[in-house]
Each structure stands twice: as C-alpha cells, then as structure tokens.
Amino acid sequence: MKKIYLLFLLLWGNVALAQKQKHNPNDQLRSLNWDVIGSVKFELTGKNELLPLFSETVKRFDNREFDLTGYLIPIKSGQKQQKFLLATLPINQCYFCGQNGVPVMIMIEMESATAYSEKPIHVKGMLKLEQKDASYAPPITIKNAKLIN
To answer: Which of 10, 96, 118, 128 has the greatest CB tally within 10 Å of its CB?
Structure first.
C-alpha cells in the first residue's frame, strides 16, 4: 500500500508540472504490440479487487519474448531505473486531467539498470501475465528485459 501511495504522489507531482506544458496528442505511441496489451480488460469483483480479463490475443504471448517501445515512467527516484512502468504517453502529459486519458502501462523489469530518458525507449524481454489485483500491482510484466537500440 505504501508503494502505491508513493507512486500516486510521484505521479501527482508530475501532473502539477505537466499542467504548465501544452498537450501533444502526437506523442502517444501506437503499435500492434500496444494493441495486444490494450486488449486486457478489468473486472471489479465483490471483494473490491480489480482483476484482469486476459483476451486470447494477449494469452498467446504469455511466457514468450515480447518487445515494446514506450515512455519510461519511474516508480523510484534516481537516474538509473531497473524496474519501472512503460507507457504510451510521456510522463509530462497529464494523465488525470481528462485531456489525454490514462495511457496503457505495463511493468518492466530490466536485466540491468538503464538511464532515465524522456524519449521513447525500446525494450525486449519475457511477457508474463499474472492473475492478481491490479489495484496493487500491474498484472502484465516484461521480465529480464534488455534495451534495444
């Protein structure tokens, strides 16, 4: 719970900064692989859990090598990041003010830390799907990822 609170504070701080910047819808990344990730829907259960509903499309890629180009969204402070979110929109775009909506995001776990960049990065690793409450942790992860140039 503390991690989610910290992530919320980090994103909220960036929202305040982002509101000074003009929105650019051309920054949103689109690809067939992002469409696969975007095919996951979510269901709120009676126990107040947000569980993923994995489509057959995304299930085909479970435990297989998968690559994505996206924007690095840090979940911890520091110039080097080993575990972070990858999104279709840059962090300077306001996710919560209704201008661009909440972008598709997944967790990335790198083999070794990579430097933070505001430009899109391309990663490749093993796609993992987990049936867990998305309120606390992303159910889709690319593990053992490597930076692709």
So the answer is: 128
pTM over 0.85: no
Q: How far is CA 102 from the centre of its chain?
A: 10
Given a cut of 60, is residue 117 above it in pLDDT?
Answer: yes
CATH for the stretch 2-148: 2.40.50.140
- Strands 140-148 and 105-115, bridge-based pairing: parallel
CA atoms within 13 A on the CB side of 146: 3
Q: Amino acid identity of 142?
A: I
Q: What angle do CA 97, 42, 142 make, to 5 degrees?
A: 90
Using CA atoms, how far apart are residues 95 and 74, in angstroms rounded to an integer? 15
